[in-house]
Amino acid sequence: MSECTRKRKPAKIKNPLRPVVANMWKQSCGLLAMTIASLTLLAGCLPEEDRGDIMDVTDFATRYAAAWSGQDPAAFASFYAENGSLRINDGEPSIGRDAVMETARSFMGAFPDMVVRLVELRQTGDHVEFHWHWTGTNTGPGGTGNAVDLKGYELWTVDEDGLILESLGHLDDDEYQRQLNAGSEAIDLKRLLTN
Which residue, of 5, 43, 125, 152, is most buried by count of CB atoms within 10 Å of its CB? Predict the structure, then answer.
């Protein structure tokens, strides 16, 4: 076969724009990916006014913990609305600022060295969870002399003035009783009956 009759492959025409278009395509995909990632991250961020609210709640909770630790029941009760309530586990609620003040007074009297520290805040719907770490020694009148070291939390409902309308306190009562009565002769009937 002669060279003229042999089929030749058509010559490839080099497109000078091909590398430019390919590079633009890569850049566009990269930019699109960065934009999606940025929007995703920004969607998780709080608006400026909400960031202020979080800072306000953190400041409030820090001051509240200091008030628990401060041996001033009236200062502690000032964090509550006039008709606010404090309930610990399934106990009777202390309703009204004066009743909250008396509950705080009883804890502060029983544990004169008590310290409450803010561990964490969590937003749960319309409520705030105030997670705390409480230490103290039961050296008040009739005390056991034993130290307690507990963690728990309060679930707050806050009113429009930023005061606590309701606080539902949660702690491990069995552990509290164990620490409070360690080494004492008292028999814990609840524990005795479950064994």
Answer: 152
